[in-house]
Amino acid sequence: MAELAGVSVRTLHHYDEIRLVRPSARTTAGYRAYSAGDVERLREVLAYRRLGFGLREVAELVGDPSTDAVAHLRRLRGLLLERRDRADAMVAAIDRELEARAKGLMVTPEEQLEMLGARLYDAIGGAYTATRCTEPRIAGQIWDALGDAETVLNVGAGTGSYEPADRDVTAVEPSAVMRGQRPAGSAPCVAAAAESLPFEDQSFDVAMAVSTVHHWGDPIAGLREMRRVARRVVVLTFDTDEPGWQDRFWLTRDYLPEFAAVLAEFPSLAGMADAIGARAEPVPIPWDCADGLFEAYWRRPGAYLEDHVRRAVSVWTRVGPKAEQRAVRGLGDDLDSGRWARRNSDLADLDAADLGLRLLIA
What we know:
Layout: H1 2-5, H2 9-17, E1 25-26, E2 32-33, H3 36-50, H4 55-62, H5 69-102, H6 109-112, H7 120-124, H8 128-131, H9 136-146, E3 151-155, E4 168-172, H10 176-180, E5 189-190, E6 204-210, H11 219-229, E7 230-238, H12 250-254, H13 259-262, H14 269-276, E8 279-282, E9 285-286, H15 307-311, H16 314-319, H17 321-337, H18 339-343, E10 352-353, E11 357-361
Helix pairs in contact: 3-4, 3-5, 11-14
């Protein structure tokens, strides 16, 4: 067993002595005999140890009676994805510094510390390709709004979802992690921020931005920049003007009230529309939405229990691990008990829901 697990016999003896992994039986010769359940527990212990958890923390994690093997695997997967994403972000920051130093450029203290505090998208971007992609029905509404535009600027372009294939597209994305995940053959991508677009006035027929404005440091400034460089503007964003908007979606109403604080500083829909002279259209979210945005699984609640789903949505990073864990635990309990189904029975027959997504068209 020691050879199979890649640890010493002394380690297994120690785990037995401290009651962390106690083999179920002994052979007639006195050797420890591990059952399938013992091996499963040992796997969990070693996985948590290799993630840096202390023995006391590991004992609490694997000894949790409410957590089964599947829950442990999901938790471990989420922790590993988060670590991978952070490592990817650090590598990208190091590469930028190495490139700057090779050119003899001065590296500021802020730039030196960037590897420890990468942009939000650099921290979550590694998970995007797993669940974030173009939803055809939402794309159709966006592309209709583009009209007869031939040249399109996609601001905050991410990995390239919703970029129309039949137009001349230029992308703008500040995150190196996101730029690195753009597929081969996608539109050329410029490393720049929305608030300072490196283009002349009226350079494009239309500038578009999809589910990105809430990540900008100054959304109004970014929208005005889009208006400056393009003759028309199309933006997919979120409406917080409607009274009680937090209660539109059962997830924020019943499990994650912290979502309201995430958007506390976000401009009003009316303010954003005024900034670019836009009108607003509702964008319904289909029940089987292919793009794993925050509200995508409104009729598939079990998806929110999956770590890889949450890791691709910035909301979960912003509310923090305590709120996330509480929300997931509460939702899981309500799904098991049937309480969620009873409270949300009106959703069962809906093909699409208006949960606040809005298309600004100027």
